[in-house]
# Entry
Amino acid sequence: MTPFGGANNYYYPDCGDFHTNPSYGPIPLPIPLPESGGIEGTGPPYGAAKPSYTCDNGSDDCHMLIVQGNTLFESGNTNVVGGNVQAMCALTWDLTRVYPPQGRGDQCTSTDAAGFPVAPLLFNADEMYAAEQVSNGDLGHAIRFILKNSRMMKAAYVHPASHGTSGTGENGASDTSPNAIPYGSRLRLKSTFNVAGFSAGNHADGGAAADAAARVLLRTLQKYGMVLADGGSVPLTAESDYYTTHKWAEFGMDPNTQSGGKLLYGIAVTNFEVVYTGPTIALTYDCNSNGNHMTPADFIFIDGFDY
# Structure
């Protein structure tokens, strides 16, 4: 367990899980650092041979996702300096709990702007392999997706998100149109889309393996959909294959040699429908971390994909 050494602009009280230290006041709980672990963007394919706990958290996202027992530790803008964890947000998720529609609390952010946990909405190469062993298999859960802030509704969200942004920064100001998409929106691929006939956008590089992988993702999007989790320029995010048995190259998705980022080229926004999950909520930044976090277990995608 590694103590938290602080960071500038810590998101308090949103990223709670605080305990009281007589000397330093409220600080986040210590975080377990596995010996072989590392922070996002520090290992392959970013040049280094293996991940590390040294990350440029002043300019990069530097997420760190660690499971210990039934607890998921997530931090953002993370670095480890002098035996202490630095982060702008460091929090935990209880893996035995079914969280309510407002997650950890309305108006509360997390390491994702929408207030979600990051890890459960990622997908990895081992999941892809398992899905391909089943006829018409899918990943079994919704996928997080990202848009530029300029394409999102200004200062608003819908459940199961609990937070949004005002849209300033590198992605530009948010859309003020009432028809713009708010954080937390879930888009589901229409049931009429011909998944079986889809050819991967990188078929020339990835071949039949890419076609099969693309169809797994499309079946997943048709059943569970994708949920708007954060602002940025990479629409769908998968895990690095550094820690998985299977590798993305097996599925025609190697980003360097198989144009893996082009797997789903050809899919248009008009191929999706928006699933209603509740009214639009205006962003106030008034996180009620003490009250809303204690809401009794309710139903957030209780059967995996629908209320």
